[in-house]
């Protein structure tokens, strides 16, 4: 690895799918240095605790089994407690142990009295799984934040079970059109206002009202389209008619729900009522393709299909594999987010962008939800509910818990 010359490097320039830690482990195992992944002669033999795997007491001395960062499992060693300078990891170890014990206690009435000399293998196994999960989720969180192009940060949290990052999900910031579908990215019209709030601006040109008030809150009723200023407009980035295009401003957290709803999304900051929260993005496919996929998907997969039925019924957004944070937002029959159709650089009414706005003040820590049955049309009249055979076939029980719950997701 260290010897690769410039030519060889060019010839072998491929993206690496292995994590940095794994590469470092490989290097150390082979006793190789490699500057580009941070293994030098000086730190080839460095040891940093990555996590603690097990615990035992020998001759009144406490020991922990240590996994070393950047070293393979085969080099794990037992270290006396007094040598360990990692109070957070020790705390984590103890928390995980207690969580495991309290979970098991709920299930069965077995004696969990430790003999205090060693941990039961099942407990150590759980602690290692939890440590590995934490690393995987942290890595995923880093990746999401590298990919996102908006201001708000994305956090990931699972204090509920051992579920790790989804294996078949790819973060995107905007629509990913399927082959054959073209999204026009340049508007045909732009305004030349000196003040878009007071003048006859882009919305007027489209025959609708300006969607926002001076506080960047939406003031038009659901079902009404939003026409924002675009790349042809003379106004600058501070124009009051540029909101959705600036992306999510709030820090959000993808978290594991404790009521069996899988992943959910909560806000980490207070969100004012009628504010733009996030866009719903995914693959843009034809409705025929959506029909086909709908038959292949299980109940969960079907809930990611979002018909763009603002004016026609030609296209559907599929966020099952490609999406942003909205992929993880759960359904509620009494939601705090509301769907709006948005036109910015693409004025094709068959292909609106979908924006989610808060319907009320949402406090920090509250879960975000929207009504899956409102996908597309923005009102809940009976014909907005999709009755196509593919999607009606399987009904998914709703677990939203709202007083007004309709019982099913579809
Ligand atoms: Zn204007
Ligand atoms: Zn404009
Ligand atoms: Zn403007
Ligand atoms: Zn419900």
From TrEMBL:
<dbReference type="GO" id="GO:0071456">
    <property type="term" value="P:cellular response to hypoxia"/>
</dbReference>
<dbReference type="GO" id="GO:0000785">
    <property type="term" value="C:chromatin"/>
</dbReference>
<dbReference type="GO" id="GO:0000775">
    <property type="term" value="C:chromosome, centromeric region"/>
</dbReference>
<dbReference type="InterPro" id="IPR007728">
    <property type="entry name" value="Pre-SET_dom"/>
</dbReference>
<dbReference type="GO" id="GO:1990756">
    <property type="term" value="F:ubiquitin-like ligase-substrate adaptor activity"/>
</dbReference>
<dbReference type="GO" id="GO:0030154">
    <property type="term" value="P:cell differentiation"/>
</dbReference>
<feature type="binding site">
    <location>
        <position position="333"/>
    </location>
    <ligand>
        <name>Zn(2+) 4</name>
    </ligand>
</feature>
<feature type="binding site">
    <location>
        <position position="235"/>
    </location>
    <ligand>
        <name>Zn(2+) 3</name>
    </ligand>
</feature>
<feature type="binding site">
    <location>
        <position position="196"/>
    </location>
    <ligand>
        <name>Zn(2+) 1</name>
    </ligand>
</feature>
<keyword id="KW-0678">Repressor</keyword>
<keyword id="KW-0479">Metal-binding</keyword>
<feature type="binding site">
    <location>
        <position position="233"/>
    </location>
    <ligand>
        <name>Zn(2+) 2</name>
    </ligand>
</feature>
<dbReference type="InterPro" id="IPR001214">
    <property type="entry name" value="SET_dom"/>
</dbReference>
<feature type="binding site">
    <location>
        <position position="229"/>
    </location>
    <ligand>
        <name>Zn(2+) 2</name>
    </ligand>
</feature>
<feature type="domain" description="Post-SET">
    <location>
        <begin position="394"/>
        <end position="410"/>
    </location>
</feature>
<feature type="domain" description="Chromo">
    <location>
        <begin position="47"/>
        <end position="105"/>
    </location>
</feature>
<keyword id="KW-0489">Methyltransferase</keyword>
<keyword id="KW-0158">Chromosome</keyword>
<feature type="binding site">
    <location>
        <position position="191"/>
    </location>
    <ligand>
        <name>Zn(2+) 1</name>
    </ligand>
</feature>
<dbReference type="InterPro" id="IPR003616">
    <property type="entry name" value="Post-SET_dom"/>
</dbReference>
<feature type="binding site">
    <location>
        <position position="400"/>
    </location>
    <ligand>
        <name>Zn(2+) 4</name>
    </ligand>
</feature>
<feature type="binding site">
    <location>
        <position position="398"/>
    </location>
    <ligand>
        <name>Zn(2+) 4</name>
    </ligand>
</feature>
<dbReference type="GO" id="GO:1904047">
    <property type="term" value="F:S-adenosyl-L-methionine binding"/>
</dbReference>
<dbReference type="GO" id="GO:0140949">
    <property type="term" value="F:histone H3K9 trimethyltransferase activity"/>
</dbReference>
<feature type="binding site">
    <location>
        <position position="201"/>
    </location>
    <ligand>
        <name>Zn(2+) 1</name>
    </ligand>
</feature>
<feature type="binding site">
    <location>
        <position position="202"/>
    </location>
    <ligand>
        <name>Zn(2+) 2</name>
    </ligand>
</feature>
<comment type="subunit">
    <text>Interacts with SMAD5. The large PER complex involved in the histone methylation is composed of at least PER2, CBX3, TRIM28, SUV39H1 and/or SUV39H2; CBX3 mediates the formation of the complex.</text>
</comment>
<feature type="binding site">
    <location>
        <position position="229"/>
    </location>
    <ligand>
        <name>Zn(2+) 3</name>
    </ligand>
</feature>
<keyword id="KW-0805">Transcription regulation</keyword>
<dbReference type="GO" id="GO:0032259">
    <property type="term" value="P:methylation"/>
</dbReference>
<keyword id="KW-0808">Transferase</keyword>
<dbReference type="InterPro" id="IPR000953">
    <property type="entry name" value="Chromo/chromo_shadow_dom"/>
</dbReference>
<dbReference type="InterPro" id="IPR023780">
    <property type="entry name" value="Chromo_domain"/>
</dbReference>
<feature type="binding site">
    <location>
        <position position="196"/>
    </location>
    <ligand>
        <name>Zn(2+) 3</name>
    </ligand>
</feature>
<feature type="binding site">
    <location>
        <position position="239"/>
    </location>
    <ligand>
        <name>Zn(2+) 3</name>
    </ligand>
</feature>
<dbReference type="InterPro" id="IPR046341">
    <property type="entry name" value="SET_dom_sf"/>
</dbReference>
<keyword id="KW-0949">S-adenosyl-L-methionine</keyword>
<protein>
    <recommendedName>
        <fullName>Histone-lysine N-methyltransferase</fullName>
        <ecNumber>2.1.1.355</ecNumber>
    </recommendedName>
</protein>
<feature type="domain" description="Pre-SET">
    <location>
        <begin position="189"/>
        <end position="247"/>
    </location>
</feature>
<dbReference type="GO" id="GO:0000122">
    <property type="term" value="P:negative regulation of transcription by RNA polymerase II"/>
</dbReference>
<keyword id="KW-0221">Differentiation</keyword>
<feature type="binding site">
    <location>
        <position position="193"/>
    </location>
    <ligand>
        <name>Zn(2+) 1</name>
    </ligand>
</feature>
